[in-house]
Amino acid sequence: MAIELRSDTFTQPTPGMLQAMMAAAVGDDVFGEDPTVNELETMLAQQFGMEAGLFCPSGTMTNQIGIKMHTQPGDDVICDQLSHVYQYEGGGIAVNSACSVTLLQGNRGRITAPQVAAAIQPDDVHKPHSSLVVLENTSNRGGGACYHFADIEAIKEVCVANGLKLHLDGARLWNALVANNETPAQYGRVFDSISVCLSKGMGTPVGSVLLGKAADIKKARRIRKVLGGGMRQAGYLAAAGIYAVNHHLPLLAKDHAHAAAVAQVLQGKSWAKEVLPVETNILIFNTTDAMPAATLVQQLLEQDVRCLAINSQSIRFVFHLGVSDADTDKLCNILQQMPA
Fold first, then answer.
1. Total-model pTM
2. At 190, is the secondary structure helix, strand, or coil?
3. Between β-strands 129-136 and 75-80, what pairing exists: parallel, antiparallel or unpaired?
4. 15: number of CA atoms within 13 Å, CB side?
5. End-to-end CA distance of the chain, in Å?
6. pLDDT for residue 313 is more than 90
C-alpha cells in the first residue's frame, strides 16, 4: 500500500465509524428533521459554547457562508496572504460576498493585533468598509503552525474596538487543541463564527460545521440554500462526525509525533534546505536548486510515497489517521537511504 501524504483528506472511515454511519437515524435535513445532523450540530455548538451549528459539505462552504453572513457587498476582509480563504477557495470572497481583501504578511500564516489595527480602512467614502477578520488555525501553508491564544485574544480586542467581526477557519483546529492542550470553549468565547472540519485528520468522509450565534446560523442556513448546500438524509455523514469527535480526537497526537520524526530525518539531508518547525501534523520543507521539488516527489512516488509539491522548491507532507507507525518508520528509512 502507498503511503499517502498529499493531504489528511485521504483518510478512510474506520470500521467503528462505518458501523455508526450504517446505524444512523436519518430524516430530511433541509426540513430540519434529520436527528443525527441535529445531534452533531448541537453537540459541537455546546462543546464550543456557541448557540447553534450548521452542517455543510465542506470547509470551503462553511468559510464562505461565514464570510458572507458577516459582510455586505463592498466591504473589506482582513486576512493573512497565505490564508485558505484567499488562496484555495476559488475567489469565493469576491464571487460570493463581493468583498475586497486586505492581505497581511504574517508569520507562517499567523497575523498580529497591530497588523490588524493598521489594516483597518479609514472612515472614508473612497475606501471599502472593513468588517471582518479571518484567522486560520492551524495554518495550512504555514506548515501546521498554531496561534498563541493570547495573540488571538489581542486580535479580538482590536475587532471589538473597531466594530469588526472575527471568523475562524478551523479546518485543523482539532490539531491545535490537542497540540496546545486548549479547549473548544476558549475559542467559542472569542470568535463570532467558527468553521470546524471533520474530513481532514478526524477521518470522516465529508463535512464541516459552522458555529455561531443562533441569529447568524439562521442567516447562514439561508445562504447554504442559495449555494446549493442543502443535504437530505445527511445523518449518515453526520454520524461519522459524531464518531470522530468521540473517538479520533486523541489520535491526532500520534500524527504530530509522526511529522516530528520525519522532520528530524530531513534535517540531516543537504537537499532539504529548510524544514519548517513542526507543531502539528503538517511538515513543509524547502529543497535546494539541485533537488527540485518535482524531482523529489517523483523519486518518492517510485517508492510508493505520495506527497505534494506546493511550489518549485517546496514539498508538503501531511500525516493523518491512515499513516501508521510502520508507514512512518518506512518513510524515515526511505529518506535516510537517499543520498545526503
1. 0.97
2. helix
3. parallel
4. 0
5. 26
6. yes
